[in-house]
Structure formats: C-alpha cells, structure tokens
UniProtKB/TrEMBL annotation, chains A, B:
Keywords per UniProt: Glycoprotein, Glycosidase, Hydrolase, Signal
Catalytic activity: Hydrolysis of terminal non-reducing N-acetyl-D-hexosamine residues in N-acetyl-beta-D-hexosaminides
Domain of life: Eukaryota
Protein name, as recorded: Beta-hexosaminidase
GO CC field: membrane
UniProt-listed Gene3D superfamilies: Chitobiase/beta-hexosaminidase domain 2-like (3.30.379.10), Glycosidases (3.20.20.80)
Glycoside hydrolase family 20 catalytic domain residues: 190-528
Range of residues in the leader sequence: 1-16
Active site: E351
Taxonomic classification: Eukaryota, Fungi, Dikarya, Ascomycota, Pezizomycotina
Beta-hexosaminidase eukaryotic type N-terminal domain sequence ranges: 17-166
EC number: 3.2.1.52
UniProt cross-references to InterPro entries, sorted A to Z: Beta_hexosaminidase_sua/sub, GH, Glyco_hydro_20_cat, Hex-like_dom2, HEX_eukaryotic_N
Length: 579, 579
C-alpha cells in the first residue's frame, strides 16, 4: 500500500481525483462494482434508492426531507456516473499495454454505507457561505465495504462524487477500481466556489444550463451565478410585467419562465450547487428599453463607446421615481420566487458609465459629486428590498471601490478587475469574491467581435479584445485568490467565480469554452492555490489528473476540449522537460 | 431589382453567399421550393435523381459516369441542405420583426436545369491544379425557372451549393428565398483551396473526417490534405506491414484501413474535394519505431527539444538501405491504392532536426554539407517512386528553401513559415501553396500544452505556444496569399491551405477549432483577398455573411462557434464604430 501525500509528484495517474482531496491514501487492489450494490443512508435502505438504482424512476419529489432528497440525488448520480457515464482509461496507460484487471474471480464492493453525523441547516438550499459543512470522510476497504461520513447531505454528495472518480469502465463492460484500500479526508478551502454564466448576450436552453451545473457539481463547485439579463436581451419572464421579456428577449420564446428558473434552481440545489440570479443595474440594462423606453437613458447611441463598454449603450435613469417604481414592482415579483432556493441576489453594479447621465433628464450631469448620492440611494433601495425578501445582496466591486457606496456588511463584494481590488474590499471589512479577469474570464482570447474598418484605432484590431489572450488552464490554475491579501483578512475572501461572458459563446460552443478550464478554478477554490511548500501547485502533477477529469466530463456528455494529446498522457511526464 | 456589386457595403444580410461570388445581382421576390421540384441534368431527369429526391436511396455507385455521380451527389446534397439542414434566419432580422414571407398564394421554383457544357477531364478525381473548371453561371428567374451552367460536373456542384444559400427555412416548415431574380457568375481565384488535418496527434473517426470534408465542400474548398502519420502515432494500415499500425497507432483499433481511406477519398471526390495523404518524412516519423526500431534514430530522447520540435524525438535514418527498402515497400503498397482518387502525394519534409543525425550511426554528423546530399537522395528516391505511381509530389518549404533539394518542377511546395517563403519558392519557379502559420494555423492560441515547472525558461510559459495567440477569423481573412509575390509570379501561387494540427484537438472539439474560422480562408482562396480597390476586403461586409454561414454549418451538424452575439447580427452594423 502506497502512502500518497496529496502533493506528491508520485501520485499515479490513476488516482486522479479532481479537485485534489486534502489527504488520501490508496492501494492497488482491484475491486469491481455492480449496480445491485447495497446502499444505506443513516441505516436505511430506502425503497426509493432501490427504484433509482434500477433505473425505474427519478428522485421522488415527495421525499420526506431535503437532506434525503439531496442524498438520493447523489446516489442516483453515482449510479449513472459509474454505470452509464464512465470511460475506458486507455489513454492513461502505455501504448498497447495490458492495463485492465482480469475479470476472473472478481471481488466486489459489497456495501456503501452513508452516514450523516449532523442535521442539515434548516433550509440547506438557502444556506449562506460557510454554513454548510461540505467535508467528508471516505473509506473503501479491501473486503469491499465503503463508508462515507459527513456532517451534511451535501458533504455526502461530495464524497460520492469523489467515490465515482475511483472507478473505470472495463472493455468487457464491467466497472472496477484498482485503488483499494482508499482512505480520504477532504474539505474545501473556500466556501463560495462558483461559475458565473451570461444568458443575456446569448440565450441558452434550460438543458444547456443544467449540463453546465451538472459538470460544475462534478467539480465540487457549490454556486451557480446566472447573469440573466443585460443590455442585449432580457430573457427573464416577470409575470406582472410580461412585456419585459416578450419585447426584450431576443425572441418571444427565448425566455426563462418562473417555472424554468425554479427548475434550474432546484436542479442545482439537489446537487449542492446554490443557484442565484443577477440583474445587473443600473448599467447593462438597455434591453428594458424595448418595453419601457422611459426608464432608460442614452439608449443605443451611435457613438456607443462614449456611453457604454459595448453596444448597445443605455442605462437606467438614476434619479427617476418611475425607475424606482419599476424596481419595486419587478423585484417584488421576482425575489419571492427565488428565495426558496437561494440566500443571495446579485444586484450588479459593474461598468457604470457616467457620460450616460449627461443625457438623463433626471440628472443631466457626469459629475461624480452629483452622481454618487444618487447611486448610493439607488443601491440602498435595491438592497433594502433584497433584504426584505430574506436575501443577501451581492454587488460588483465598483459599487464599493469606485462609487464608495456605504454597503451593509452583509453584502458580498464580487471583484473582477485586479488582485488589488480583493485586498481593498477586505481592507474595508467586506466579504470578497475573486475572479480576476486576467485569469478567470473564460471568454477571453477569441479576438475582437466588433466590426471595425482597418483604419480604426489599433485598440480595436483583431487581437485586441478587452482580455486577450485566452487564459489556458495553466494560467487559471496559477491564480491565487489570496494574493496580496494580508493573512488577517483571508477569512473575508469567501471564494470566487470563473466567468463565461457570452459575446462569442452560445449553446454550440459553451461546453468547450467552460470545460475543462473551469476545473482549474474548481481545484484552486476547493484545494487552495498553494501546495505545502507555499508555492503554486505543480502543473506537472495536475496535468494528467485534469486530462482524466476531462475524459470523465466527456463521458457525461460535456464537450470539454483536450489539454494534451494521448501521447503525453500515455507517457507520464514525457511532455515536460527538466531544463 | 437591386444591382449589387460584389463588394458593396449595401449587400443585404440575406444575400449571404459564402464565399463571395465574383458577380451577382438579386431582387426581392419571394419564391418557395418543394422537394418535388423538377431537376434535369443535360436534359435527363434520371430515375436515380428521383430516387434521391424522395429520400429512398443514396447515390448509386454503378452510375454510368463519374460526372453523373458527382452531379447526382450534388443534387442529393442540395435536397438535404434545403429540406433537412436548413435554418430559420431570425437572428438576421430586427428583434421581434415580422420577417418571414406570407405563406399564402405561394409561388414556386418550377424547375432546375443543370447544363454541363464540356466533358469532365478523363479522371476528374485525379485532376491536377487548374485542370477542373469550377466556374458556373446561375440564374433564377421570377417565374421560378432555375438554370445552372458549368463546364464541369464540379462546377455544377459549386453552383448548386450557392443555390442552397439563397434559401431559408420558414417557421411553418416550408423553404423559401426572398431574392428572386438572381443571376450569378462565379469562379475561383485559386486552384488549390485546402484544409490540412492532422490525424496523428489525435485520432479521428472516419465520420469526423467526413464531417469536416462536407463543411469544406460547402465552403467550396477543393482539396483535403490528411497529415495521416506523425511521431506520436501511425494510424495508417499498410497491409504488407501490419505491425506499423498495430504497434504504432494509439490503439490497435484506432486505425485507417485501406477501405476507410478509399471511402474518405471517394466521399471527398464526389463533393469535388480531392483527398490526398501526407506521410511526413524524414522527421515526424518516430511512431515507426514501435514496429521498426532499427529505422529510427534519436527515438524518444529525454532532452527531446535538442532533437525535435516536440516530443517524442526521432527521425528516419538518413543513409540507411533498410530505410530505403522500407520506403520502397511501404509506398509500393500505399500509393497504388491512393491514385484512383488523387493526383498528389505529400512527402512532408518540415522541421528536420539536424542534431538527430549525430545519433544516426549511418551518418554521425550534424554538418549540413554532409547531410544535404543524403537528404537530396532521400527526397529524390521518394519523388521518383511517387511519380512512378502516377502521382505528383508535394513537399514542405524546408526541402527547397532550407535543404536546397533540386526538386522537379512538377513538385508543389507548401509554405508555412512566412510570406517571404512564398516569394522565394515562386522566385525559384516552383508552384507554391500558402498558409502562413501566423494567419492560417487554426490550432494556435490554446496556450502551452507542455508540462513545465514554473522555474522553466519563459519560452515555455503558459501563453507561449509556438504560434500564440489564437488567430480569429478577422486575422485569417486579412491574409493575402499574394503578399510580397511579384505579379509575374502570381500564377505560381496555386492556392493554399488552412491547417488544423491536433495537439489540443480531438473529435470533441475539432468542429469548433476549424469552423467558422476556416471559412475565412475559403473566401480568400475562392474570392481573393483584395477588393476592387486593391485593399483588404471589408470585415464589416463579411461579418454578417460569415455569421449566416456559421448558422448554415450548425444546421448541417457542424459545431461551429459564433463570431458575434445575436444583438450584433440583428442590427446590421451597430457592432461597429465609425471613429
């Protein structure tokens, strides 16, 4: 039996758990697993679990408790992953090697015992950062007994996710591990581990979004942030204001109904991924113009770059009772429908363009001394309403760092522009999310999408999109959320998000844009950016593990791109060089 | 009726033929088309055509002539494209606009008359550059009669491809054009318009390759170059040397059999896309070591960067009778099977590493004065054998420009390193292919795939892959094959290729890596890089047309990525800026 410290370069490729567990040991005994394996949860082998494992049904939504639902979903997902969405790991062994275990005299996993040692928070779907203990302990002994213990249902789900990554499909169709005995103790470094998906620049079907959430959960992400509206389209149905989506969506039918939003939230919630929405305000709102032109100033100006970061320009008026009435009504409609499944609502606040308020008849000024009190009032009104509905606000960094809005200390501030912003937010005593666009913006690098004649200023030329070049997984992996933050403020860095903005991403290519690169962010957020020596984690160690995770994602129907050719992953570290 | 010069910025988005025809006019009369439309080819309404249009069969391979097969394939493809692989163009019209024609009192396309005015070359599948006249004339008059005239069967196929791009799917399911009357005269600028696909760094199924060829034909490419072997794998089955693939492929079953190669070649040939193979020699051959280690020197050296551009190192020995015997036998087996479907064979010749020959016991030298005569002999032997089998050699530029091999003037020299290389090749009087890696390498920009510790030299750091960054379509579109070539040598620039090397590309992401960016190369090669003023073609004009071509590719099952969000293409040129 090999004792493998988590950071050793000696980790055999086969033990390719992603993200890296806090500690584990494994051996080299082969065990097979079959779909009649006996699973118990807190001593109960429920009928519903049996129904699930035989593939006769899905999770019964009338189950007695949320914890039970989450665990049953995790068990169902474990069966699917092991028996329907698994892969033959030929790429991870030398060419034409006889790498598969003998299928004679098979020994089997005999039981899976799931033990939850504490009660879940009252409503785990809404739990704030840090209130769900996601740690787990996993033991797989050579006699075939599997034990997973956790303090929460989501901890058990995380443990089962890890469990599936011990197993491979055999060319004869059966499923095996070569790693028994295994013992793993694991817990996340950061409490908020998210992906932010833009569904406004392009529309994505509910199934596309669920596919991203499924892969996110498989990487132990626990937050899914939907940037659901923006200047280009408003796909979110607000039943009391039907024109918002009917006129503001790209097409009448490319919308998210209340039922679909709840479906997405519930889908995520059952996978331990809390889904929250962002309505970005006051900028990034020009799609409201299509139904309520009186609320928007500087709409679709020809010289859009004077008034916005990208076309079309337009922003909510900043000192308008009509805008306030609109927000009262719109958020009163929306927020109570979101709160059963999340504790958060993101009110946006990035890239506010002050020139737009020169055209706003309620303001007529681009003087920040005039604008700041109006912004303060605007944000506080939003946040009061958000809190009144039982939710905690999240805002983009500019509201604090540029506009100096006196945010409540409950607010989470999402940074994106720099590591300095993280330090500045925490210095002011606020909880911060990281996601520096030079590292964790997944959309970068496709080059300019704006159409400019060759005579245009160089700034717009093909390579010069705002965050060129593409950040490959190594760049994302080298990003330390705590960089530049003094140790006494580390606790305020509650986590971060990888971002997929959708100017050049739609359902056809989103998988490839997000995966497997977002896995790098997942590991940084779960396992931390630094190894035991305090240096960046080794890309050489991570590389074959990520290639294996990529194969697992492909096996579950996610079109993740390869990061190395088979020659490299077949041959250990031969695609590196020591000098 | 609008008269639309091909280069006008006034081209309505709906007339989005890609690549741009040499000249056309169109109107605004609506005509529908149904799958019982009467099609004749040189006056014959053949039974087989009727069978195809009713979907009861595929092309009958016992058809009387190749020309008839090509035309029948084109007709079948036209039906599939119009009625099964079409799209609703909502993205190309203002939000929520009523853009579709009324379906009351429909007028129809009444007949499609295909006239071939000259006989095809004796074996059109093998035709050398310039010997197939691909020009066509297309007329669609308001009464519903369609006439396509061409001098060759492939010209008719090109005309039918253009024809399908006049039509859209209606939400009610029918198919229409809004552009009658239409008159188009068209012909290609360059004779060799190709894609080069690497099937050695990663393996691709025959269906993956056919999908790329299908999309290539839809962009009027006429060549498909398969870089079928390389140092990482040898997937090509040579029946007289079974171990080559059995041991040299990534997996015993990840191979291309003679039947599969012929199937791919025939598939391309019937679409007017000549498929030829490359066996890259003498470098890029280390996969031969797995079956014939005695033929390879410097195999898999640890300091691979001393001996090769990427791992594993290894090259055919340069002065070995065993190597010569191997090549005699291997090419004698292979070439006669290729020649029914192509006039070309690519013998490689790029990136030969002279240090490797220090380890070659048949040479023991890195002195180019010693190596050059051996290389001369090596290449001449290959080319003699290629010619003997009725094929014309293609080589990479280094054989001429670095090694000064006295190539026959029949040889086509494929450049990749610079525009200067094109000028140098033509100055020596050779036919040149273009494809400067700073413009037309589709694999660039994913960042480093080699695993290096952070302490490595900066050269290897994440962004520094050899051709970083990613070339977006605007960069590819700005590439002029004739740049730096004096007018009197233009006729020697016979065309070019876009390249997809497969270090980070496999079947999961290849569509997205190739499309729609390769379309930019297709248009440069068909329509020329320059407009009537002699300047680069306008990206502002091309952008919405390319977005539409992208939708047509997606409709045919190709996962091409978007280049702009719907907001931009719905709104004409509002995603540009005039200053």
């Amino acid at each position: 039996m090999k004792i493998l410290p988590a950071l050793s370069l000696l980790i055999p490729v086969a033990v390719a758990i992603w993200p890296l567990p806090k500690s584990y040991t494994s051996g080299d005994t082969v065990l097979f697993i079959e779909d009649n394996v006996h699973v118990t949860y807190n001593g109960v082998s429920s009928h519903s679990i049996l129904i699930i494992q035989k593939g006769h049904g899905t999770v019964n939504s009338t189950s007695p408790s949320t914890a039970s639902e989450i665990v049953q979903t995790a068990i169902q997902r474990t069966y699917e992953t092991l028996f329907s969405k698994n892969f033959i790991p030929w790429k991870f062994h030398p060419r034409n090697s006889d790498f598969e275990p003998s299928t004679e005299n098979k020994k089997y996993i005999t039981s899976i015992t799931l033990t939850q040692t504490a009660a879940d928070p009252e409503n785990i779907f809404q739990a704030p950062v840090g209130e769900v203990d996601e740690s787990y302990f996993l033991s797989l002994i050579e006699s075939g007994k599997v034990t997973i213990k956790a303090k929460s249902s989501i901890g058990l789900a995380r443990g089962l996710t890890t469990f599936t990554q011990l197993f491979f499909k055999h060319t004869e169709g059966c499923v095996y591990t070569t790693l028994a005995p295994v013992e793993i103790s694991d817990e996340p470094k950061f409490a908020h581990r998210g992906i932010n998906m833009d569904t406004a620049r392009n529309y994505f079907d509910v199934d596309d979004i669920k596919r991203i959430i499924d892969a996110a959960a498989y990487n132990k992400f626990n937050r899914f942030h939907i940037h659901i509206t923006d200047s280009q389209s408003w796909p979110l149905v607000i039943p009391s204001m039907p024109d918002l989506a009917t006129k503001g969506a790209y097409r009448k039918d490319l919308v998210y109904t209340p039922e679909q939003v709840a479906d997405i939230q519930r889908y995520g919630g059952l996978l331990g991924v809390q889904v929250f929405l962002e309505i970005d305000m006051p900028g990034h709102t020009s799609s409201i113009w299509f139904s309520r032109p009186e609320l928007i100033t500087a709409f679709n100006e020809e010289a859009w770059d004077t008034y916005a970061a990208e076309p079309p320009s337009g922003t909510l008026k900043l000192n308008s009772t009509e805008v306030y009435d609109f927000l009262d009504e719109m958020l009163d409609d929306l927020l109570p429908r979101l709160s059963p499944y999340t504790g958060y609502f993101h009110s946006g606040g990035d890239e506010v363009n002050i020139q737009a308020y020169l055209l706003d008849e309620t303001v007529r000024s681009n003087d920040t001394a005039v604008l700041q009190p109006l912004m303060e009032k605007f944000v506080q009104r939003n946040h009061d309403q958000i809190r009144e509905k039982g939710l905690t606000p999240i805002v983009w960094e500019e509201m604090l760092l540029t506009w100096n809005v006196s945010l409540g200390k409950d607010v989470i501030v999402q940074t994106w522009q720099s590591d300095e912003a993280v330090a500045a937010v925490t210095e002011k005593g606020y909880k911060a999310l990281v996601g520096n666009y030079n590292y964790w913006y997944l959309d970068c690098g496709n080059g300019q999408w704006l159409d400019f004649p060759p005579s245009s200023s160089e700034k717009y030329w093909p390579y010069n999109d705002y965050c060129f070049p593409r950040h490959n997984w190594r760049v994302m992996y080298s990003y330390d959320p705590l960089h530049g933050v003094p140790p006494e403020a580390h606790h305020l860095v509650v986590g971060g998000e990888a971002h997929i903005w959708a100017e050049q991403t739609d359902p056809v290519n989103i998988d490839n844009m997000v995966w497997p690169r977002a896995c790098a962010a997942a590991e940084v957020l779960w396992s931390g950016a630094k190894d035991e020596t305090g240096g960046n984690r080794s890309q050489t160690e991570a590389s074959p593990r990520l290639s294996e995770m990529r194969e697992r994602l492909v096996a579950r129907g996610v079109m993740a791109h390869p990061i190395q050719m088979p020659y490299c992953i077949m041959n250990g570290t031969q695609c590196g060089l020591d000098h």
